Each structure stands twice: as C-alpha cells, then as structure tokens.
Amino acid sequence: MAELAWPGQFNLDFTCMLALSGIWVAHRHQFSAPGVLLGVCAFVGGALFLSVYLLVVSFRTKGDVAAMLLGERPQG
Predict the structure, then answer these.
(1) Is 76 contained in some domain?
(2) Which of 41, 48, 72, 75 is most buried, by the most CB atoms less than 10 A from its CB?
(3) Is 52 a domain residue?
(4) Could you tell me the end-to-end alpha-carbon distance of the chain, in angstroms, rounded to an integer?
C-alpha cells in the first residue's frame, strides 16, 4: 500500500469500504455491544455478511429504506 501503485490503492479502497460498512452496521444498532460485534462481522465478512444482513433487515423493515439505513430510533 505504501508504494501507491494500483494494487496498493485497491487494497486501501477495499479496506476503507469494509471499515465504512462496519461503522454503518454498528451505527444502525446505536453502537450497542451486539451492534459493535455485528460491525466487526461486517468488516471481516465483507460482501457475504452484508448481503445476508441487508436481506434480513429489508424483511424486518418491510422495505422501508429510511429504517434500513438508520435503524430503529426511539419515538419522541
């Protein structure tokens, strides 16, 4: 990655995408202990984890995109 050649940039971009997905999953769960654990799973599991996670979340939220992106928020 330090050489800033094509493979290094690809690895850096991919690592940033995995980190962002892990932070997003943890944020959806308000950084609770299970949310942080799921975030780590998103970072390590990549697309395999995220595709299953998004499928489950889409069924739980009945396709509500705002609820899918932001998670469950307390009313008030």
Answers:
(1) no
(2) 41
(3) yes
(4) 46
Phi, psi (degrees; rounded to nearest 5) at 29: -100, 20
Q: Does residue 75 form part of some domain?
A: no
Domain range enclosing 15 = 6-70
What is the full per-residue pLDDT of the chain (76 aa) written as tens digits? 566 688 888 898 999 999 999 999 999 999 999 999 999 999 999 999 999 999 999 999 998 888 888 887 765 5
Q: How many CB atoms lie within 10 A of CB 49?
A: 19
pTM score, whole prediction: 0.83
DSSP string of 1-70? -TT--HHHHHHHHHHHHHHHHHHHHHHHTTT-HHHHHHHHHHHHHHHHHHHHHHHHHHHHTTT-HHHHHH
Residue 5 is predicted with a pLDDT of: 83
**Do the Cβ atoms of 43 and 22 come closer than 8 Å?**
yes
> Is residue 35 in some structural domain?
yes
